[in-house]
Specification:
Blueprint lengths: L2 H32 L6 H11 L7 H14 L1 H10 L1 H22 L5 H31 L21 H28 L3 H32 L1 H30 L3 H23 L2 E3 L3 E2 H4 L3 H44 L1
Antiparallel strand pairs: 1-2
Helix pairs in contact: 1-2, 1-3, 1-6, 1-7, 1-10, 1-12, 3-4, 3-12, 5-6, 6-7, 7-8, 7-10, 8-9, 9-10
Length: 345
């Protein structure tokens, strides 16, 4: 396998992990935004208990993606940095403020007004970050960025991502995060035996899942209209992944309806993963269609192989660390739950 292909697969894997894990964290704040900041304290406690162990750790996958793109395909990275600096900067602002709000909220327990302010900041920032990241992805997928094959950008900084397909993908990304969060939080509620929360989040899972199925079909129609080149890739190469995404999405709804919450979580994650890999397969071999391709943007093979071995070693360190982090916090939560149950009896 060519080194650039391996780097592309690593990039897609990093993006998938960021969306499946970090996207659920964003989705928790999006649900707070959707409820007009009227969520109960029980809902908020469930959300913060669920995302507390990895509320910023999941950004490591975004860092992997940026490093791989910058060093593996420097021409594409430079072009995207010029063409999409505004939505990417706004996404970064959302990520920073979301993290700050999550931290400061926990230290404002005795100041209700401050706590409410940080909850609003957390919800708005959690919604803004995937919105602008989704708009950036849509701008690339549309094939309408005014980028030359050498990586120059000769247009303004608005028209490239303020068009129908990028705006749609922005909302789709927000919905995807809410969809994941609803399924994850249903399982979290089941693990602590909170039947009231199970009923609430199961209903939200079903609602979000149905809406995302509808939006996915609308998205395919919009791709066919707005980006014929990408539609051709879906039609010729990505259709098995489109079918797989549909099957996984339907299965996630069936599983959560039958209270098979672990299966529902895996199916929801698989739905998002197949959507992302379907997009990647449909767009290949273009990185920024139609001008910047894998071949024209790649770094020398010696650099690519060094990155492959370096990132492989990095994953061997990061993945077990995140797993141990989750295991430690989940065990602590279960211990606290057991202690509380014994105290009440």
């Amino acid at each position: 396998m060519e080194p650039e292909t391996i780097i592309l697969l690593q990039m897609l894997a990093s993006l998938t992990l960021y969306c499946v894990l970090g996207g659920a964290d964003f989705g928790a704040g999006i649900w707070e935004f959707n409820t007009a900041f009227q969520a109960s304290e029980k809902e908020r406690q469930l959300i913060h208990r669920a995302i507390g162990p990895v509320w910023e750790a999941n950004h490591v996958w975004l860092i992997f993606l940026l490093v791989l793109t910058a060093n593996g395909f420097p021409t594409a990275f430079a072009a995207l940095s010029r063409a999409l600096w505004l939505p990417l900067w706004l996404a970064l602002v959302g990520i920073v403020f979301r993290g700050a709000a999550f931290a400061f909220r926990s230290h404002a327990a005795e100041a209700p007004r401050q706590q409410q302010l940080w909850e609003i900041v957390f919800a708005v920032a959690s919604t803004a970050a995937p919105f602008f990241l989704g708009a950036s992805v849509g701008a690339v997928a549309s094939g309408k960025l005014a980028v030359t094959s050498e990586g120059r950008f000769d247009a303004d900084f608005l028209t490239g991502w303020l068009s129908p397909l990028p705006i749609f993908t922005a909302f789709f990304a927000v919905g995807m995060c809410a969809y994941l969060a609803a399924f994850y939080l249903t399982r979290e509620a089941a693990q602590i035996g909170d039947h009231e929360s199970i009923a609430l989040w199961r209903q939200r899972s079903l609602t979000a899942g149905i809406w995302m199925q509808i939006l996915a079909l609308v998205g395919l129609v919009l791709v066919a209209i707005e980006s014929p080149r990408l539609w051709e890739g879906f039609r010729l190469r990505s259709w098995p992944l489109v079918v797989a995404a549909l099957i996984c999405g339907v299965f996630s709804l069936w599983a959560v309806g039958r209270s098979k919450f672990t299966w529902a979580v895996f199916a929801a994650a698989a739905t998002v993963a197949t959507v992302l890999w379907g997009w990647g397969a449909a767009q290949y071999p273009a990185l920024i269609p139609p001008t910047v391709t894998v071949e024209s943007a790649k770094a020398p093979d010696t650099v690519l192989w060094a990155m492959i071995w370096g990132t492989g070693a990095g994953v061997l360190i990061v993945a077990p660390s995140l797993g141990y982090l989750l295991m430690t916090f989940k065990r602590a939560n279960q211990h606290r739950r057991g202690h509380t149950e014994r105290s009440t009896t």
